[in-house]
Amino acid sequence: MQLKNLYWYFSSVISKNKCEEIIEYGNSIIDNNKKLNISTKAVTDGRQEKNDDNTRIPKFEKSNQQLIKEGVQKEDVYIRDSEIAWLSDNWIYDLINPIVEKANIEAKWNFQIDCQEQIQFTTYNPGGFYSWHCDGGSDHHSRYKRYMFGISNDALEKDGSIPIGYVTEHKLVGKIRKLSLTLNLSDPKTYKGGNLLFDFGEHSEGLRYHECLNAREQGTGIVFPSFLPHCVTPLTEGKRYSLVLWTLGEPFK
To answer: pTM for this structure?
Structure first.
């Protein structure tokens, strides 16, 4: 798929006060989940997140080719280290849905979209990162499947959550992630590192890798197609808070 614009952003589209309100609220959910022994660890497809056994090393923003040159096996690294909470509050959807809808028009993607997943509140502490990944595919192979307890072949995860690739909400069944939104909640003066980095592909015009420094302003929303590879570089100081929203629709034809 050839796109004229690979991402679209709105600088400081959410006010500082609203950002701080969301940070306080998100942190309260994380703290409460910990009290209830509910995991706040961000997971990945294939369980490549940081674990507690300290037997794997962080991949950071290295490519698989770089790992091979260093003699490191894929199974010996982890690609994500962050904490999350899931939010489904209407007042937050009302703040960020218009950002996605406006970007879809102004970037001239005009993707067919009709529903959203829960909002992910993410916290990165020093050393935290999310290596190269795509939020979703672009065809029917990436469609969400309905999870039916006691019937679906794949077992629940150890923490009781449904397997990745499955959903229980009727509106999401058969849909794929089409547009991703990352909203930076943090004042850029309060942290270092933690930048959004895109991979435009080896055949892209100009530089292949693009560090999206215009995403650092507090309240700035970045929207991009969910199949675009991206990562969050390691945080070196402070804390970085963000919201992530995936907007879905029927598979591309």
So the answer is: 0.94
